[in-house]
Each structure stands twice: as C-alpha cells, then as structure tokens.
Amino acid sequence: MAGKSTKKRTMACKICKKIYFDAACPQHGDSHMSDDWFGFLIINDTENSVIAKTSGIKESGRYAIKVR
Ligand SMILES: [Zn+2]
C-alpha cells in the first residue's frame, strides 16, 4: 500500500487558459496543462463581460490571466 497523498492541483490550460482542479482540459488534453499560472478571472456572463470579449472567452468559468 502506497501512502502517497493525492494533492489536488490547480492547473491551467495554456491554450484556452481555463482553470481546472486536478483535471486536464477536455478540449486540449493534459499536455497543455501548467501549474505555473497567475491571475484569477471568473467569467459568469460572457455576453456582457468586456474581459470575456477582449480575451476571446466564449464560455463561462474560471480562467487564468497568464499561463506559462
Ligand atoms: Zn484548454
């Protein structure tokens, strides 16, 4: 029995910048996931959000501002 703790990691997709909790991006796969990100953006209303429009975000959710 391995006593490894499964720490939940918050990862961001480098392509769509969406933040996932211990999961890979369903659209771009885990090869584009990075834990080196900063900025936290919550988009609730893509229709009326200026940030969503300028960032090209079409889906509501949590996004990172920068992903390295
Ligand atoms: Zn993605």
Could you list some keywords that capture this structure?
68 residues; mainly beta; three-stranded antiparallel sheet; two-stranded antiparallel sheet; 34% strand; elongated
User: How many helices?
Assistant: 1
**Number of beta strands:** 5
How much helical structure, as a percent, in the residues?
under 10%
Strand content: 25-35%
Mean pLDDT across every amino acid position: 89
Name given to the CATH architecture: Single Sheet
Query: Measured on Cα atoms, how large is the radius of gyration?
Result: 14 Å
| Text of the CATH class | Mainly Beta
Q: Indicate the CATH topology.
A: Rubrerythrin, domain 2
Give the distance, in angstroms, between the N- and C-terminal Cα atoms.
35 Å
Shape: elongated
Poorly predicted runs are: none
- The tally of structural domains comes to 1
Biggest sheet: strands, sense, closure? 3 strands, antiparallel
**Oligomeric nature of the chains:** single chain
Strands ordered across the widest β-sheet: 2-1-3
SS-based class: mainly beta
Bound molecules: zinc ion
In N-to-C order, the SSE pattern is EEEEHE
Topology:
Layout: E1 10-13, E2 19-21, E3 33-34, E4 37-43, H1 50-55, E5 61-67
Bound molecules: zinc ion (ZN).
